[in-house]
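Reviewer 2 asked us to include a model.

Predict the structure of this chain.
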Amino acid sequence: MLVLIRNGEVYGPEPQGKKDVLLCAGKIALLGNEGEIDPRGAETLGLEIDVIDARECVVTPGFIEGGDGREVYFHRNAVLEGFDGLQVGSEVRFAEEQGVEGPQASTVSVVGKSD
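Predicted model (structure tokens):
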């Protein structure tokens, strides 16, 4: 499944401006300028694509939702088993520490994969 996030203010971690982000299997496949990625190309190929209008929203990768509902930043290097094995919705355990910009996960272990 493809997901196209359109017109969002993208940070990764530096401000990128208004961009479109194409996700494939939960991973960033393409980053384009606002309006540059056309979902009709995927539809023409018979691929399912969800389009999310992120106007007035901030789009940023690298956050984990804790048990208390707070979001904690993490870097791909903090994933002990390797970042490529991590999927959106995977259950994880992490050690939280105070980073320069706020709370961050220092070690992330995958507990269970998402369905």
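The chain has two domains: 2-59, 63-112. The mean pLDDT is 82. We have added this to the supplementary material.
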